[in-house]
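Hey L., structure's done. Input below.
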Amino acid sequence: MDRKKISIIGAGPGGLAAAMLLAKKGFAVEIFEKREQPGGRTSEINLQGFRFDVGPTFYMMKFVLDEIFEHCGKNSADYLDFIRLDPMYDLILPDDRKVTVYEDKEKMRAELEKVFPQTGAGLDLFYQRESRRFKALMPILQADNQNPLDALRWRFIKALPYFSLGRSVFDEMGRYFPPEFARLVFTFQSKYLGMSPWQCPGAFGLVPFVEHEYGVYHVKGGLSEISRQMARAAEELGVKIHYQTPVKKILFNNKIATGLESADRQINSDAVITNADFGYAMDKLADYPKEKLKRQKLSCSIFMWYVGLNKQYKLPHNTIVFAKNYRQNVQDIFGGQLTDQDISFYVRDHTQCDPSLAPAGKTALYVLVPVPNCRAQIKWTKAQQQKMRAVIISGLKQRLGLNDIEDQIAVEQINTPETWQNEYNVYQGAVFNLGHNLSQMLWFRPHNRFDYYQNLYLVGGGTHPGSGLPTIYESGRITAKLICKKYGIKF
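Output:
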């Protein structure tokens, strides 16, 4: 067979997954990456030996990644050292009660009963019902969903009740856990999708189920190590990765993608895969109608504070702190307003389970604050950045007891929504990509085989199945299957 040439824009997780799978099937695959390392938002920041994941910090649905390696004749354990976390994280509720969240079902039931008496039985219902939702919806999420007529198939029809149409995740979790704050334990995960738990469709009740059923993992060296090792595996399979090679535009002939143009050359291709952020790719690399982009609903953004500290604190691996008025905080974020003082934030400190992330005796602390995306037109001036930094420090002192943190700062870096937009090519700084409302799910989300152009394929959070590392890897697998099918190659 004449080896078909596949050009991929970006060495992010979806692009790397597609590259590995296609190279294994005999395609000639080249990746063109803007940065000097793979991963994009799953790469690493190194500040004088303090190492931080740029974006995601723990991984779930490990089986998806394992399957991709296996399909390529490889074992993920030969490349990556996974550390299963149990407890998975601590939650600091709006009233300052703490919930330690366990994968172990008995420990989790006991914890719920301790904090929310008479709610333990709800956990059994949660597992029973959400396992059925997972079994019903997972095959649909793993299908390519190119054809809307697939909705008439029996597989989809029998799964309809599990979409919980007209109900939010917050509504759905109320079936098991009536107390408002108990629901927060199983609904804050909507933030993984950049959405409000009061707006996130009820179908995404499967996200907390997957977390509790299959566990969460740290990867030694940080989650950036996944992209680094996938790039290594891809190159072993024959993929050529061109670093520090930004793509200027996608080449088209009558809306048929024919290749790419970089700063110094044109690359002809049999198919093009864009792993670039969907909005950015359509806005900057193609002639996609701008009004279509403006109509699309976007996720929130994040304000990041990466800070290296000269001492270690006895913190959990992962801590989520809810604003005192959490619902108002969420309304502010999705209403384009900055909460003045009462913020929610996430803190990662994996130094104790993974000393490689910081110099000996020190801490690489990762602090994430959900904020509005750039459509809110908030100006992230130095003064605004310092104001948010001060609010974070106040929260770390008051809610987590890190009273001397200012005295321990060795290095630090701030990323704002404007950083994501300008340096990471994230459209409107919406780091979780397109929203996951019902009008932008399944057939209504940009297809993996993009239908506005021929020969152009999409991977990443802006296409089906959606945001989050496991689903992004799945997008790479779906796309690889579609390209194999086009050329009559068994996947």
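The chain is about 35% helix and 20% strand. The chain has three domains: 5-83+220-297+434-486, 100-214, 301-371+381-415.

-- N.
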